Amino acid sequence: MVEAMAPAGVGFQLTDEQQMLQRMAREFTTKEIIPVAADYDEKATFPEDIFRKALEIGLVNMNIPEAYGGVGASPLEECLVAEEFGYGCTGISTSISLNSLAALPLILAGSDAQKQYWLGERLMGKGEFASYGVTEAAAGSNVAGIQTRAEKKNGAYIINGSKTFITNASHASFFCVFAKTDPAAGHRGMSCFVVERDMPGVSTGKKFDKLGQRASDTAEIVFENVEVPAENLIGQEGAGFYLAMKVFDYSRPGVAAAAVGLQRRCLEESVRYAREREAFGVPIYQHHAIGHKIADMAIHYQASRLLVWQAATQLSSGQIDPKLPAFAKAFAADKATQAAVDAVQVFGGYGYMKEYPVEKLLRDVKIFQIYEGTSEIQRNIIVRELFK
User: I need a surface site. Which of 51, 120, 280, 339 has the fewest CB within 10 A?
Assistant: First the structure.
């Protein structure tokens, strides 16, 4: 096991409780995720059984406060678990961890009554799935460009439009949906609503057949004259864009942490193989062309992990600097992609075969540079913050 060394005296030393959580997540991954990951990937199986087991021991819905039945984990604690799950299978990790993203609009802007019901009764009490609905066919990186409309009428909102690439859409009982309540106001005219799956006019499309993270369900949601009660508005009308941006500040470190977990898997699989495989009479790690690739994996893994921990730790302080989640997301996603490419190269022809684990890592990793804000968008955020 390749372990990261935390720098002493700068706030990255894990507490005994955090180390215990990390061990629990690692043991859960070893027992429940890794043995089934290849099969779930091949068959595109939704990991509801794994979600139920993780829910029982408090490893999902982690950001839901204790007042509403959750464990009230810190962002850093969420990242510790995300890394372990990402090590096992990022597809399974995405599906079983998605509730934490869907819960964020309610946690950040919901009323106490909304939190009691949607977080407490539905997510924790009934163990339901929820989804986060922002992305549209013509509005991916440009969140302000969404076309879904919510028209206020007779004390309710009538929603029309669609969302695409929505994780867990086929299994969610409700969705946190962003829609334009005042299209003429641009990004200031966006609002957020809780929409029930069984409301008339709500439908989901066929599950997408994906390159990687195939155990993660991804589908389209369509809203046709869906009547949503006014009490399902989250926060203030017109404040949805700012809420969506704040959600991303909180969610990106966890996504980056899953990429860090995948990096660690690439590193450990490469170390194991390069020690056993010989070429020209010596283990292949002794050839600099291979050994240096693995050394770079280790450097990038350590750096990515520290960026994630820094981003997660600053969220707990209440002083949010959007650069830090962007640093972590961009760097971890890019370096995880490089690690997966290099791991396949270390394995040579065997790395291209499904019977070896690095083939799946390469397919799984690419989405990290796309979802939760592309690597290009992360750099746009960094530039914006640097030149304010």
Answer: 280
